[in-house]
Amino acid sequence: MIWAAVGLAVAAPLVAAGISPLLQYRQPIYIVAGFAGIAGLCLMLVQPLLAGGVLPGLERFRGRRVHRIVGMALVAMVVVHVAGLWIFSPPDVVDVLLLRSPTPFSVWGVLAMWAVFGAALLAVFRRRLRLRVWRAGHSALVSVAVAGTILHALLIDGTMEPVTKVALCGIVAVALAVVLIRLKPWRKGARP
Questions:
Q1: By CB count within 10 A, which of 22, 72, 174, 176 is most buried?
Q2: Phi and psi for 167 in degrees, rounded to 5?
């Protein structure tokens, strides 16, 4: 049942975006960049579920391994999203990265991007950090990444269909909150 719900939550926005009439006016690189962003948001749903051991059939250690792989895929989706937009319009991406863009969604996107990169970097150096520091830092960066991504997505009027976009954003936020409350990464002696 959980797998079916996750599949539906991920498939619905992807399918809805895939049949958007706005796609017919877009260049292929822009479409790829946009769908990389949507896929990244979908992966943000899967990540906390893997970390929290919520998905049936993935025991704790196997779930962690998949969590790392999905984390790498998430970083790749962010890179493809930004690189595709860069190829499509370099001046716009420079303005966004320098926080000069007049569009409010861009600030949240940049914040989310750096938080994703920061969380991934912490994961790379996990063994060099004290466990409590790593847990708290990783959880904080992931929370910023999710919040920034949700605001970024909600403020954009684009190929994502509004109802499925809002639903996915809500589900991602709830999944992260539930897993953080369950794992309590800020508490001494929390599960690794």
A1: 176
A2: -60, -50
What digits encode the pLDDT tens for the residues 80-128? 999 999 999 999 999 999 989 888 899 999 999 999 999 999 999 988 9
3-state secondary structure labels for all residues of the chain? CHHHHHHHHHHHHHHHHHCCHHHHHCCHHHHHHHHHHHHHHHHHHHHHHHHCCCCCCCCHHHHHHHHHHHHHHHHHHHHHHHHHHHHHCHHHHHHHHCCCCCCHHHHHHHHHHHHHHHHHHHHHCHHHCCHHHHHHHHHHHHHHHHHHHHHHHHHCCCCCCHHHHHHHHHHHHHHHHHHHHHHCCCCCCCCC
**Nearest residue to 108 (alpha-carbon basis) of 59, 141, 145:** 145
**10 touches 45 (CB < 8 A):** yes
Is the pTM of the predicted complex or chain greater than 0.85? yes
* Cβ–Cβ < 8 Å for 121, 75: no
Q: What are the residue boundaries of the structural domains of the chain, listed by start?
A: 2-183
Angle at 66 between CA 64 and CA 69, to 5 degrees: 115
The count of other CB atoms within 10 Å of the CB of residue 150 is 22
